[in-house]
Amino acid sequence: MKMGICAWSVPMDGPYGVKVASDYGFKGMQLDIGEPERGFQLSYSHVQKAYMQFAKEHDITFTAISVRLFDRYGMTRENGTPEKDMVLEGIEKAIQAAETMHIPIVMLGSFLDGEIKNDEDFNRTTECLVKACEMAEGKGIIIATENLLSIEENKKLFEVVDKENLKLYFDTQNYYLNRDYNAAEMVRELYDFICEVHVKDGIGHISGSLLGEGDSNFFETMEALKEKGYRGWVLIENYYDQKPLSNENENPLELLKKDVNILKKIM
């Protein structure tokens, strides 16, 4: 496996965060397209160039681009609304940035505002995923869904979308935290769909604990990935400068260092 980190988990915003990640032993990083209020920052060529310059200097691979906007305005929004137009713009901007920066995955999450709770949410989300896959076709870009669906619901989603460039972005905590699902079992059943992995942990709170110190059965899930022969990117998504995890040490970089050591031992 290869070790990376999400840009929003590095306690340093902007391109300089790439250097920080490299200093702590990471080889990969997932970026975010940014906020619409600021023009989806990563869509700007000068921002892309800054990130690519730091990546080259510090030997970092950008593994994916996320559209984290969907936590506020989800793919579940009604068609024809300003919010849904913003969603579609975010997808388009992320795919364009991924193509320019040679990043292979665009991750589209279904959490908070975009959580799939009923058939209407499911239909609107799959419709968006189809559009995204079609935008990305021929560009060598994978569209990755990250969601809270069950094993069977995920299988149905892939059947409905029916696109070869749709994959699953797996997270070691989200399924247990939000649905009490066994993440290791989900790995075993959905492995063929998985393209990349987030790792974080906690007890009753997202990213509230160092890896393996929460209640998500982190080590069992990692063992399941190893059993399946996973050799891809594993990206830390703990929030070291946010409570409750930040209560453990006033220096978030010390917490980051501990998680790096934990992850290195089991990879």
Automatic annotation (TrEMBL):
SUPFAM superfamilies: Xylose isomerase-like (SSF51658). Pfam families: AP_endonuc_2. Keywords: Isomerase. GO terms for molecular function: isomerase activity. InterPro entries: IolE/XylAMocC-like, Xyl_isomerase-like_sf, Xyl_isomerase-like_TIM-brl. Residues 19-265 form the Xylose isomerase-like TIM barrel domain. This is Sugar phosphate isomerase/epimerase. It comes from Oceanobacillus polygoni. The lineage of its organism: Bacteria, Bacillati, Bacillota, Bacilli, Bacillales.
